[in-house]
Amino acid sequence: MIVAKFGGTSVGDTAAIERTAAIVRGRLAQQPVVVVSALAGTTNALLDIATQAAKGQFIVAIRGIEMLRERHLAVVDELLDGSAEANDVAADVSMLFDELAHLGEALSVLGDLSLRSLDAVASYGERLSSPIVAAAFQQRGIPAVWVDARKVMVTDGAYGKARPQTDAIAEAAREHLLPILRDGRVPVLGGYIGATPEGITTTLGRGGSDYSAALFGAALDAEAIEIWTDVDGMLTADPRVIPGAKLIEHIRFDEAAELASFGAKVLHPSTIAPAVQRSIPVFIYNSHRPQAAGTRITFDAPRLSVRAVAGRGNIVLVNVKSSLMLGTPGIVRGIFSVFERFKLSVDVIATSEVSVSVTLDADLHLDAVLTELRSFGDVTVERHRGIVAVVGSGLGGHTPTMARALAALGDMRVHMCSLSASAINLTLIVDGDQVHEAMRRLHRAFFEEAA
Ligand code: ASP
Ligand code: MG
């Protein structure tokens, strides 16, 4: 069997749900379990509603709830037009909105918003979308069965970002999903939501539906996890910077993780880790162009010296220089304990015998940090830097790649350079206003000129 997850834009309106149904119908032979997000934008709206209600703005909250009700009922109406089930589904949807209105009222009376209450409110997005999609599937000849995801996604009580309990999920999946699959039917569940063993609703954190799909897939030992979204997959560069960026058809999990740290927003690799660790391949597909190749993420894609280039501006380079470092163990530890104390995450690191250079996000407030760092040596700060990266899993054993990257940058100033022993990411710090040009030069060298 496979798990097919459809994000908010793939179930955002009637036309999107129609496309999604067609995709699932074409995959019945693979025994799909379908996981859906909330209708695009719904989770944001729900969180706003909860906040307004708790601030005592009950009228505003109710208005938000009624807008969502109308939108969902309109989708039900269009999708199930004239069918016998249309009225039942509309009644169920309306009942959920009545519940939500009561919840909003309770929050506004209490004037208090706990993470537990936020999860309760946020869960309605997937609790609404999943039965609607299941009914739409049924009407289009797909033997769909709606399953309340909260029966299967067992989590702890860390509201807002609950941790899945994998053994309990595996057991619940065997109990609630396998019989449906054995019958040749298609379970449809909401992503993102779960419940504690006591039955209290939780969520896995924003964007959690990918995580749900990976967890269900791992629990059922699926042959593949498909993440259906509104882009073709991962590309050799950000297409807004490099319009000619090409689709990456196969990428290693660790490479995908490196790219994600540069804001490749397609999916967050940590969310699919449960599947990839079990050697279940994850595919990214575009629900607008289902015939396109998509991207496959596995642990064992063939090594390739360069898979993609990435970049981002808004970086500060901090350099601590001190002759004390010569032969004094523990100085680096001292320097990093400062970053730790301020909870600053360092991106790139390079050291010499007498200096340590790191890069940090430029938006951070650094004054207090710099003061403490000065106790270790001379501190210099270079603002307005940017970072470009050449990501690929064969970089280490392949020095010509490094030479080629530096040659491609030509006369551009490189302020710092780092390649770790895992050799998956060659990072170069350049002037902030040169990031895009650097990306273009690197992309040209590795993807546009004949190898
Ligand atoms: N609907 C949830 C969110 O927007 C989960 C998801 O879409 O993955 O965060
Ligand atoms: Mg989403």
How would you sum up this structure, described in words?
The protein is an alpha/beta fold and 451 residues long. The protein has 2 domains: 229 residues, Acetylglutamate kinase-like (Carbamate kinase, 3-Layer(aba) Sandwich); 141 residues, VC0802-like (2-Layer Sandwich). The chain contains 15 helices and 16 strands. The strands form 3 sheets. An 8-stranded mixed β-sheet has the order 3-4-2-1-7-9-10-8, with helices on both faces. A hairpin with a 5-residue loop joins β15 and β16. α2 runs antiparallel to α3. Bound molecules: aspartic acid and magnesium ion (MG). Aspartic acid binds next to loops.
CATH homology superfamily of the largest domain: Acetylglutamate kinase-like
Number of helices: 15
Low-confidence stretches: none
Distance between the termini: 40 Å
Number of domains: 2
Overall shape: globular
CATH class designation of the largest domain: Alpha Beta
SSE class: alpha/beta
Bound molecules: aspartic acid, magnesium ion
> CATH fold name of the largest domain, please?
Carbamate kinase
Strand content: 15-25%
Second-tier CATH architecture of the largest domain:
3-Layer(aba) Sandwich
Share of helical residues: 40-55%
* Biggest sheet features: 8 strands, mixed
Radius of gyration: 25 Å
Annotation, overall tally of beta strands: 16
- Return the average pLDDT rounded to an integer: 93
